[in-house]
Structure formats: structure tokens, C-alpha cells
TrEMBL record:
Keywords: DNA-binding, Nucleus, Transcription, Transcription regulation
Bias (Basic residues): 75-87
Main location: nucleus
Protein name (Swiss-Prot/TrEMBL): WRKY domain-containing protein
Tagged with keyword Nucleus: yes
UniProt organism field: Handroanthus impetiginosus
Gene Ontology MF: a single term: sequence-specific DNA binding
Superkingdom of origin organism: Eukaryota
One of the Pfam families matching this protein, by short name: WRKY
Example of a GO cellular component annotation carried by this entry: nucleus
Length: 179
DNA sequence: CGAGTTTGACCTGCGC
DNA sequence: GCGCAGGTCAAACTCG
């Protein structure tokens, strides 16, 4: 049985699970579900509630985001890798800026040119002590306004800015996804 | 001076 | 086995 859980809980507590970017520059387009293989992901439009297969809809109202956490991330052994399987969450945002302020502090640890894409992919790690969350940020070459952010892992600590809890973030998303 | 960024080297998995 | 692509490391560098 695949591990599978919703990542974003519509709770008022700013728990460790909220990683939705809250940039004022973005409009949320799609969430992308990452399965074990990179080419196996599927786009899930932010739309009315629906569910498909093992996915669950977690948002009410106009926006529904389906998060799939089949923890089948391709086991990519590398030095220092604990071999843990981590779910990855990706979503597209239409934004002029690459770096979306999601409330956490990130340290860039790498950048790579990506095949078939004129924009490089940037690799970030959460700087919070003991927090192993990573994210990748990449701009699409076919649509330069779209930034794909992929999160890997769960934050083990609260958001580090004084900004909002999840409800606030959700409100922002409704605003920005009103196209 | 500490925190974060840059960037080339290195490692690993995968396809051929 | 080899080459490619993606991901990570780490030293040098920048910036506040």
C-alpha cells in the first residue's frame, strides 16, 4: 500500500505541513503530483473538488488541491543518503520572480542546467536546524512566466516568518487563482 | 564575520 | 562499459 497523505491541512495551526508559497507575485496554476518516476507525474488543476484514484481533495470552495504522497520517490542512492523515500510535491505558479516567499528560509546548494530547458534548475535546502526539506525551482522554457517549485520532505518546525497561517495562505490562493 | 550564493567537480542511476 | 542527465558537495566568493 502506498503511503499517501494530504499535505495541506486546512487547520489554523501553522503546523509543519504547510509549504504553499505565499508570494504576492504568484497565481497558482496547478499542483503537480509527483510519483516515483519523474515522468510519471500528473498535473492536477486547481479546480473544484474532485478526487481520482488514491488522491484526495483537501480544499473546499473554488479551489481544490489534490495531493498525492505515494512515497515512491525513486531511490536515488547517493553518498550521505539515508535511503528514505520522500514524497515530492510540485506546483506551478505564474510569477515574475523565481523565488517564492513561502515563509521558510532556504539556502541554495546547487544549480544545474536542465535538458530541453533554457532556464537552470535551482536546488534549495531549508536552513532550519534539523529540517531536511528540499525544494527545486525551475522556470519553464515553454512559458517563461511559469515557475515550477518542487518540495521534498516535510518541515519539522513552524514557519519562520511572522506571516500567516494556512487559512491566510488559502485566501491568497483563492485570490490569485481567480483567472 | 556569519549567512547565503556561485559554480565546477563529483557521484549515481539509467539507457543504450 | 560508456555517456548522459540529474542531484549534491564544497571551496571560493559576495553581501549585509
Amino acid at each position: 500500500m502506498d503511503n499517501y497523505q494530504t499535505m495541506f491541512h486546512s487547520s489554523s495551526s501553522s503546523s509543519s505541513s504547510s509549504t504553499i508559497p505565499q508570494s504576492s507575485h504568484l497565481s497558482l496554476l496547478n499542483y503537480m503530483v509527483m510519483n516515483s518516476h519523474a515522468q510519471d507525474h500528473q498535473y492536477l488543476t486547481v479546480d473544484n473538488t474532485h478526487s481520482q484514484g488514491n488522491n484526495t481533495a483537501t480544499f473546499e470552495g473554488n479551489n481544490s488541491i489534490i495531493i498525492d504522497m505515494k512515497n515512491e520517490t525513486k531511490p536515488r542512492k547517493k553518498k550521505g543518503d539515508k535511503g528514505s523515500k520522500k514524497a515530492r510535491y510540485a506546483f506551478e505558479t505564474r510569477s515574475q520572480v523565481d523565488i517564492l516567499d513561502d515563509g521558510y528560509r532556504w539556502r541554495k546548494y546547487g544549480q544545474k542546467a536542465v535538458k530541453n530547458n533554457k532556464f537552470p534548475r535551482s536546488y534549495y535546502r531549508c536552513t532550519h536546524q534539523g529540517c531536511n526539506v528540499k525544494k527545486q525551482v525551475q522556470r519553464l522554457s515553454k512559458d517563461e512566466e511559469i515557475v515550477v517549485t518542487t518540495y521534498e520532505g516535510m518541515h519539522s518546525h513552524p514557519i519562520q516568518t511572522s506571516t500567516d497561517n494556512f487559512e491566510h495562505i488559502l485566501k491568497q490562493m483563492r485570490i490569485y487563482s481567480s483567472f
